[in-house]
Amino acid sequence: MRQAAPRAELRIEEFPAPASLAPFASALAADVSPGRHADDSDLGTGRFVLLYDPDGQEAWGGRFRVVCFAQAPLETDIGLDPFVADVAWSWLVDALDSRGARYMAASGTATKILSTGYGELASQGDGAMIELRASWSPLDADIRAHVEGWSELLCMLAGLPPRSEGVANLPRRRNRG
């Protein structure tokens, strides 16, 4: 994981991985700059957890499993688009494939969140957010491409131009108020 070359727009730090999911685990937290850890970035944030069981796990189909999370605000009208969740999932698949990540058993959810502020939060107005939670089983121990694909996904969800040719990006930011 440390040999990966993630996108420069990310601030990445290691953090303690959940101990109960596998005998060995390593985890990364990322914010799309200019974010701060402990607070979600205004542009996007994510987590990448690599699980390893030397005996393998049948449910994983191997010894490794990646679990990731990515979140970014959207323009409210983009959040209303019925296909935005499909786009987020396709960006993950495209980002992994474009980096040559070899994997199987991909699964996950893409969630659109629409919100309206009331009372003391009325000044925030309407907002939207996309969240992607995914997991997959790497087919080999070279995790660099998986970290780099995840980093590309975070930046694309945040509205930054993709590094991959032929991939469209969402409009930059949400309106708040």
Structure description:
This protein is α+β, with helices and mostly antiparallel strands and 177 residues long. It has helices at residues 76-79, 84-98, 144-157; strands spanning 10-15, 24-32, 45-57, 62-74, 103-116, 126-138. It has one domain (10-157). Strands 1-2-3-4-6-5 form a six-stranded antiparallel sheet.
Helix/strand layout:
Blueprint: E1 10-15, E2 24-32, E3 45-57, E4 62-74, H1 76-79, H2 84-98, E5 103-116, E6 126-138, H3 144-157
Antiparallel strand pairs: 1-2, 2-3, 3-4, 4-6, 5-6
Mean of residue pLDDT values: 85
Judging from the principal axes of the Cα atoms, what is the shape? elongated
* DSSP strand count: 6
Low-confidence stretches: 35-41
- Termini separation comes to 40 Å
In short:
The protein contains three helices and six strands, in the order ββββααββα. It has 177 residues and is of the alpha+beta class.
Characteristics:
177 residues, 3 helices, single chain, 6-stranded antiparallel sheet, alpha+beta
